[in-house]
Amino acid sequence: MTVVTTLPDRRLLLVHAHPDDEAIGTGSTMAHYAAAGAHVTLVTCTLGEEGEIHVPELAQLAAAEADQLGGYRIAELAAACAALGVTDHRFLGGAGRYRDSGMMGLPTNEHPRAFWQADLDEAARHLVEIMREVRPQVMITYDGNGFYGHPDHIQAHRVAMRAVELARPEGFAPTKVYWTAMPQSVLEAGLTHFAGSSDNPFAGIEKATELPFCTPDAQIAARIDATEQHAAKEAAMRAHATQIPATSWLYSIAGNFGAEFMGVEYFTLAVGEKGPGSGPYGWEDDLFAGLPAADDPDRSPVGVVGHR
């Protein structure tokens, strides 16, 4: 039986490196657009096999032991997506195609299946096939430094941007591409708030500009206020229990800043034209700002053909 599914007018694609990256970096944005009826597609590039394990009874799943953490994290990711209301999740090239490379400079970078070693065009073509199916108008991934320098984040950036290049001649590349970011003003406020605290996540940092993900406010393009989804983001983070312990500083900050910390996320615009915004820097409050409206006759829904 052939099944034809029509996707919503708004379609958002996210490319992340490991399970849990989606929740920490873009969870509220994903939940916000999913709740608003947009089609949200999450592509995760690895299973996160090299992650630390914060659940003692699962310690033997580690890469140096049974090497089963990646399989376990598939279930964690499924639970996180459910918390965010995201129903379309894929692993790049299929689950297990690419392996977590570990932190930069470790021997795990050289594993033959490490994502860091992946052929760029081959990996990008896997993503192009998803773009061809979903036809996203907007894509989110990391900047060229992978937000903080992890090799898999850097490679996810390279693969995503190469896929945009490959998809453009065929006419289904995203119109807008955003990179995750953190404004300098927000980081400075955090440094001030936690100065002298015994639970200071910024210990040893004197200036916000010392942080690799610090972005001047003028370079921020969008501020997505999804405070109504802060609980969904926290639930998604808690679903990744092997990676984010209950005592994590992330929850400590959430306890101090609440919905604003969990619910507001920021992005720079790498591809496309910035839409209408507000404030001193004209920050957009919608990633689809400036794109054709849903009732525009030139913006037709996408039909996806599947088989059962």
Number of helical segments with 4 or more residues: 8
Share of residues in helices:
25-40%
Give the tally of structural domains: 1
CATH homologous superfamily? LmbE-like
Structural class by secondary-structure content: alpha/beta
Poorly predicted parts: none
Percent of residues in β-strands:
15-25%
The top-level CATH class is: Alpha Beta
General form: globular
Largest sheet report: 8 strands, mixed
CATH architecture: 3-Layer(aba) Sandwich
Mean pLDDT: 91
Radius of gyration: 19 Å
Oligomeric composition of the shown chains: single chain
**CATH fold-level name:** Rossmann fold
* Helix-strand string: EEHEHEHEHEHEEHHHEE
Protein name: 1D-myo-inositol 2-acetamido-2-deoxy-alpha-D-glucopyranoside deacetylase
Catalytic activity: 1D-myo-inositol 2-acetamido-2-deoxy-alpha-D-glucopyranoside + H2O = 1D-myo-inositol 2-amino-2-deoxy-alpha-D-glucopyranoside + acetate
Function: Catalyzes the deacetylation of 1D-myo-inositol 2-acetamido-2-deoxy-alpha-D-glucopyranoside (GlcNAc-Ins) in the mycothiol biosynthesis pathway.
EC number: 3.5.1.103
Which key terms come to mind for this protein?
single chain; alpha/beta; Rossmann fold; eight-stranded mixed β-sheet; two-stranded antiparallel sheet; 8 helices; 10 strands; 1D-myo-inositol 2-acetamido-2-deoxy-alpha-D-glucopyranoside deacetylase
Describe the 3D structure:
By secondary structure, the protein is α/β, with parallel strands linked by helices. It has one domain: Rossmann fold, CATH 3.40.50. It contains 8 helices and 10 strands. The protein has helices at 21-35, 69-84, 120-134, 151-167, 184-194, 230-239, 249-257, 259-263, and strands at 2-7, 11-16, 39-44, 88-91, 138-141, 176-183, 214-215, 222-225, 264-271, 302-307. Strands 2, 3, 4, 5, 6, 7, 8 and 9 form an 8-stranded mixed beta sheet that branches. A two-stranded antiparallel sheet has the order 1-10. The longest helix has 17 residues, at 151-167. The chain is globular, with a radius of gyration of 19 Å. The mean pLDDT is 91. Keywords: Hydrolase, Metal-binding, Zinc. Belongs to the MshB deacetylase family.
